[in-house]
Amino acid sequence: MLEVILDPLQYPFMVRGIIAAVIVGSVCAVVGTYVVLRGMAFFGDALAHAILPGIAIGYLVSGGTRQSLFWWAAVTSVISAVAIDTIRRSTKIKQDTAIGIIFAGMFALGVALISTVRSYTVDLAHFLFGDVLGVSNSDLLLSAIFAVLIFLTIIAFYKEFLVLSFDPLLATTLRLPARLLDLLLVILIALAIVVSLQTVGVALMVAMLVTPAATAYLFTRRLLVMMGGAAIIAAISGVLGLYLSFYFGIASGAAIVLTCTIIFLLAWIYQTLQQRRRKLV
Amino acid sequence: MSLLDEIRQTNYLNWHHHIHQVGAPILQVKSVCVEFDAGAALEDVSFELITGERLAVVGPNGAGKSTLFKVIAGVLTPTHGQVHIYGHEPGGHICIAYVPQRNQVDWSFPVNVADVVMMGRIGKLGLFRQPRAGDWDIVRESLEVVGLDDLEKRQVGELSGGQQQRMFIARALAQEAELMLMDEPLAGLDIQSQEDILQILEQLHQREVTMLVALHDLKIARERFDRVMFLNQRLLGLGTPREVFQPDILLRTYGGHMHLIDSDQGIIAYDDACCDEGGDS
């Protein structure tokens, strides 16, 4: 039994992969609590997809060193987020429509750019579905630094984000800089996505934001507990998923997301049964 | 130490100043107009409130009550006209509390009662400061005033409608608000819960809190408030109940929806367009 657990750890790429999955999973889960509570799942999904042209440009410009991809992706996601917000504010177009326009447009631009490169199918799949086992030490360091920055920002603005999410009107009457804080939150979501890009890829990113947070939401009554629970669920899913990937040869990103989903389903079934039992009693 | 003494101490200079200006207007609304895409919501509304006064605002759904409150709270900028709180623009003040309609909040949000009341302290705390023992004392005393001190650990969705409304009033108290804007605090509550809230308003009155309360129930407006405002886009009547409960004012405010019955006790009026739970602008 112990061998089942220890065997994969002989491979440095597995160790790095597991560390990356835990870091990235918990960052996404904590940021994701806001995504879930404020109903921003579609926005998060769109933001992940809208990053693709940034990655493509980084790839074309620098031949795909991870660091440069990271920065291009970060810039692209922030531009997309601001574009969505600006369209919504300056026209009568509703938010979800604005998201749809920017999301599809940016994604198409990304595919178009990548298709100009010859080995297009292989690379596109990498970006779409992630490659957590290809994480290098310097990638890990960069992820860790950004994870710490994101956590510190959330701790610093915890009470402001709480008010803004629960009762935006109160935030305004208390003279909080609501627009700035909204923008900051969007930037945090964007950075969490960019940091996790290599783990699950663009296409499955929304699951990392939403699923662990939603699972924790079923059982918690306070935001801080929800954040902690979501982070733990995401970390466990990351580790379990990679073991599944190792032993059954499943694509790593898909394995992690599937584990998250299964944990959610189990939690949901458990809660439903419990409520039914309570009703019977 | 009572909450009143707390407020006196923490806000000593201000408080002192207000007390010695008995009869000075706390609120001046000068020819305020608000136009939305769909048309005018408020037209040329002007009035003053003096410190400690209780003003009921009545009018049919869509009369602009919520819009007026949002303009006073500084959430909405009027198309024309000005609002002055103690002679200043609303932007400079956090002594106004907007007590929202219950349906404006997501009640499954993971916060407990004490968390929500603590939100009222955030404006005083400022960025990067965590609540201290003194802040929690104020939260606890505010909860005592509204009789929720034994429910402070409950998740907000587990409260009854009346308790939720009382929690919001406690939050306004924790904010040390001198002017409270209450948007339909009695909507959707049973008679007993309504009476509880009215008792709390009585206590607030003794603390010299100035109150602007939107109501559907004309009888309560007439019996429990110093002055009553009749609003239907325009200000159609403002004065003591005796002055403004006149058939022509009632008819102009409610139009064909109002039915008047002359009886021994005066005019009894009822409004058949009443009372879906809030939702009017």
Q: Which series of helices and strands of chain A comes N to C?
A: HHHHHHHHHHHHH
Calculate Rg of chain A over CA atoms. 19 Å
CATH architecture of chain A: Orthogonal Bundle
* Strands of chain A, count: 0
Task: Identify low-pLDDT runs of chain B.
Answer: 1-21, 274-281
- The figure for the number of domains of chain A is 1
Describe the structure.
The complex is a heterodimer of chains A (about 280) and B (about 280). Chain A is built from 13 helices and no strands. With about 280 residues, chain A is mainly α. The radius of gyration of chain A is 19 Å and the shape is globular. Chain A starts with a helix and ends with a helix. The model of chain A has no long low-confidence stretch (mean pLDDT about 90). A 6-stranded mixed beta sheet of chain B has the order 5-6-7-3-8-9, with helices on both faces. A 3-stranded antiparallel beta sheet of chain B has the order 2-1-4, with helices on one face. Chain B has a two-stranded antiparallel ribbon with strand order 10-11. Mean pLDDT of chain B is about 85; it is low at about 1-20 and about 275-280. In chain B, helix 1 packs across helix 2 (about 10-20), helix 6 (about 135-145) crosses helix 7 (about 160-175) and helix 7 packs parallel to helix 8. Chain B starts with a helix and ends in a 10-residue tail after the last strand. Chain B has about 280 residues and is an alpha/beta fold. The interface of A and B includes residues 157, 217, 221 and 223 of A.
Draw up the topology in text.
The complex is a heterodimer of chains A (281) and B (281).
Chain A: H1 2-6, H2 12-37, H3 41-50, H4 52-62, H5 66-90, H6 95-115, H7 120-129, H8 137-156, H9 158-166, H10 168-173, H11 178-219, H12 223-248, H13 252-280
Chain B: H1 3-10, H2 12-19, E1 25-36, E2 39-50, E3 54-58, H3 65-73, E4 80-85, E5 96-99, H4 113-119, H5 122-125, H6 133-145, H7 161-174, E6 179-182, H8 191-206, E7 210-215, H9 218-224, E8 227-232, E9 234-239, H10 241-244, H11 247-254, E10 258-263, E11 266-271
Parallel strand pairs in B: 3-7, 3-8, 5-6, 6-7
Antiparallel strand pairs in B: 1-2, 1-4, 8-9, 10-11
